[in-house]
Amino acid sequence: MFQHRISIPVKAYLMFTRKIVLLAISILSIVFVFSTDAYHEWMFVKILGPGFSILDQIGNTETEHRMAARFGISYSIYRNIRTTITRMEPNNATILLPPKEYLKDRKLSVAFEITEPAVFYYFTGLNGVDVNSPDLSRAGWAIDVINREVGVRKLARKEERDSLIAIFKKYQH
Amino acid sequence: MNFAGLLFLIFSHFFSGKGILRLFRIQLPVFQQVCLSLMIGVPIISFAPCFVQLLALPIVMNTMIVSTGIVTLVCSLPLLFPFRKPRLLTFTMPKLYEVPFLVIIVGLLIISAWRAWYLPPTARDVLSGPELLAEYAVKEKNMISSVFTIDLRTTNNYFKSPYLTCLQILYKILVCPFGQLWLTVLSTSFVCWLYVVIREKCHPLLSAFIVFFFLITPDIYSYSFIILYDYSNMVFFFCGFYFLSRFLTSQKINELIFASLLFGLATYIRTETLVLVAFIIPLLFFYFYKRKASLLDIGKYSAILLSFSSVLYFVCIYVFVKKFVIIPLDIKSQVNPNLLDLSVLVQRFLDMNFGLIFSAAGLGTFAYFIYFFSILFFVDLIFFRKRYNHEARIALYGISVVYFGVPFLGYLLPLFDLGNTTKRALFKAVPLLVWYISNGGLFSFLSERINNYEQGIIKPKSEATPQKVAVKVPIAPKPKRK
Description:
The complex is a heterodimer of chains A (173) and B (482).
Chain A: H1 2-5, H2 8-35, H3 37-47, H4 54-58, H5 63-88, E1 94-96, H6 100-105, H7 117-124, E2 127-129, E3 141-146, E4 149-154, H8 158-171
Parallel strand pairs in A: 1-2, 1-3
Antiparallel strand pairs in A: 3-4
Chain B: H1 3-23, H2 30-45, H3 47-54, H4 61-75, H5 99-118, H6 124-127, H7 130-140, H8 162-174, H9 181-199, H10 204-215, H11 218-222, H12 229-250, H13 253-269, H14 273-278, H15 281-290, H16 295-324, H17 343-357, H18 360-366, H19 369-383, H20 390-412, H21 418-425, H22 429-439, H23 441-455, H24 461-464, H25 466-472
Helix pairs in contact in B: 1-2, 1-4, 2-9, 3-4, 3-8, 5-9, 5-10, 7-8, 9-10, 10-22, 12-13, 12-20, 12-22, 13-16, 15-16, 17-20, 17-21, 19-22, 20-22
């Protein structure tokens, strides 16, 4: 009965206020969701966090910069290794990759992480082998640690290679 | 970035997908058609580089454009035939109270698209498999590249479906060096389609909330810009269930065949999905047995449901992987040799529940989504059991297929590890949870209430409590005293 008596502008006004109430509910529910721990951390650290600002990224769109930004110092070191080796041995260089535990034990000054041969090939275009590889005898270079710094060394003699492999094998689980 | 290349590929996805929809005579509102066409077009176009490789042609820009064009033309041939357009609901503009959710949804989709373009492929499974193969296929103009000369003992990711490799090849050659933008096409179309589909089922405020809640599921959002198989697999597995549900309502055989195609695409993306599709067969048996259908008919429906998955599994493993990966694949060596030991299955099931879903790790992966679903499920079970509709039951069955099927896959395939493969395989359940929630008792009750409130409809008491009114009506007026 009451509904029939109200005029059209009043009805529209009431409809509008109800929509405003629903709008308030939607805003409050969003605020509530993002005030919970899991979503708050996800939104304000992983999505809108300082390291992921689109405005900063717009200024650096070069492919190599984006690769380095994503994969960190390890990628930059891999690229330096590639430059060094291809300059000295342009064709078919095979690089011996140390085990993770070996690098951990050497207490590196940078957060370098060794990768598997497939990913090493993706980053560098160079053939990497680990100590369990059947192609170990082809290794002419090795990634090693000198004074807590990562670098490459040439394995000129068989004895030199075998002794390094023996050291690496101690760390291979 | 090559915008012309991107536009060409988006049109290819759209027209090939639209052609497939027309082929199966799938009737959908316009907006849903656009989204679904784009989604289906993504795996369809991924076949183009496969054909180029099978024909031993070089993988260069010209062959990619021509092969994509041919695949698009062939798939869009059904568009040439006249089709009586049905009267369908058109897309309605969002309401004022949906805007806050839509702003966040659109914002997150933009961030996802940006990251897909800006960041390089990151996941280890991609870098040691499909991305590596795609990068060197582009460099060496051949999918059988120098990658197979290096030490690949530490990975088996090159044995996976060519879906990701081929899309990466196409997008690297035609769009940008990191490829990946196909995932943006897929994820954006999927979120928009899901939103529209859910909006048909419950009040716009609730549908906006639930899609927003789905989108902010941390790992699912991350995989909308980090390329891997699981997001795409989740999309097509859910679409398959959606159209299966439509078939069980309408009994239109074209919808069953289309659902089969969608499950087939999910299998083409992740081949072990075939096992989960087989787990859907009991649903058909139960459903049609109750409706007194003949066993022959039930068998026919089951065969249709499994057909595309089986064919695409065969094509993927015995044609694509065999032809494109020169290292032989020994499937037997990947299967658990001791299948009689069921303790592995039980252990995996327990680990999945207490080490993955209901754990700190699960909180990082799904945040509160699973808990939210669990609460709603129990509320529905206790208070709104009578409001369960057909779709809610099918969604529950789908959730069960994933919930029991994924640990079964872990038991069947020892390489199906808990922390990575099982976790990502569980993504398939999340859109089904959304589908269940939007069709569940509590949400339909709330939808009705919010709708009444918004329209200013006040239910008369007689309608709300008919028994009380029935008691009140016979009361006679008191006689007047003189």
